Amino acid sequence: MTDVLKAENISKSFGMLNALDEVSLTVQEKTLTILIGPNGSGKTTLINVIMGYHKPDSGTVSYRGKDITGWKPHKIYRLGLARTFQIPSLFWKLTVLENLQVAGKDNPGESFLKSILQRSWAKAEEETTRKAFGLLEILGLEKVWDSQASKLSGGQMKLVEIGRALMSDATVLLLDEPVSGVNPTLAHEIFGKLISLRDKLGVTFLIVEHRLDIALAYIDYVEALAYGKVIARGLPDSVMSDPKLIEAYLGG
Ligand SMILES: Nc1ncnc2c1ncn2[C@@H]1O[C@H](COP(=O)(O)OP(=O)(O)OP(=O)(O)O)[C@@H](O)[C@H]1O
Ligand SMILES: [Mg+2]
Questions:
Q1: What is the 44 CA–ligand 1 centroid distance (Å)?
Q2: Where are the alpha helices (DSSP H) in 51-117?
Q3: Quick one: which of 198, 217, 215, 199 has its CA closest to 207?
Q4: Cα dihedral angle (8, 52, 80, 33), rounded to 10 degrees?
């Protein structure tokens, strides 16, 4: 198994609060690793540190053996890592397709030179649109491609966020609560889509999620945080029965 992502001894404080205290975590290629823990245990902060949104006070983050600690988010994104947010942040007035198109890595709109070279612009747009429709199909969103984002259900919004993240050709996705607030049937469907993305595109996942009842059937590995420290890790069944985890949730 290849280690795709490695966080080693990450600490991050906000004033007096130790949000992360010497946290280490490894994500292996083409697996679904879930990061669990009570509210405020540091899960989102760890995602922010890995993706370059927060600089850690100490510790290192590496991607396929390369030290990327402190890199800016856009540089990390270019490496093939992408994220979604706890609260979906779509362009609400744009359609589903447009939301994916504007997220394309080589969106011609980014480059003035490309935009005046009409032929290359048209070709890039065609390529981006083809890629977007391919992803919409895998995500089961092809029927709502022309719906305005604001009109979608909560679950569909989560799926569009995942589609947007994948427009960068990301091979590693960090998802912050991909099924929170989504009904159980759709939540199972979303996890099913993640498995398809892993199997069809070889995507590796680090997923923050509270809904273990739903996630359990799909995940390969669990990392559990409490008060900014890893308190348990391993295969789902063994972590779920770990007294430290039960205490962290009940005690919290
Ligand atoms: N930018 C910030 N400034 C100050 N404090 C912060 C900041 N971001 C997070 N914190 C604090 O750090 C701690 C960890 O927060 P974090 O958002 O990582 O928790 P979480 O595990 O994602 O929780 P939840 O399950 O509620 O999303 C919390 O006490 C939070 O209030
Ligand atoms: Mg969070």
A1: 7
A2: 73-79, 96-101, 112-116
A3: 215
A4: 50
Q: Indicate the pTM of the whole model.
A: 0.91
Query: pLDDT tens for residues 126-147?
Result: 889 999 999 999 999 999 999 9
Ligand 1 atom nearest 228 alpha carbon: 14
Q: Taking Cα atoms as reference points, which of 149, 155, 152 lies closest to residue 185?
A: 155
Which residues lie near ion ligand 2 (Cβ < 5 Å)? 43-44
Domains and CATH numbers, the chain: 3-251 (3.40.50.300)
Nearest CA to ligand 1 atom 2: 14
Average pLDDT of the residues in 65-87: 94
Q: What pLDDT does residue 106 have? A: 58
> Which strand (E) or helix (H) includes residue 34?
strand 32-36
> If you measure from the C-alpha of residue 30 to the centroid of ligand 1, how many angstroms do you get, rounded to a whole number?
28
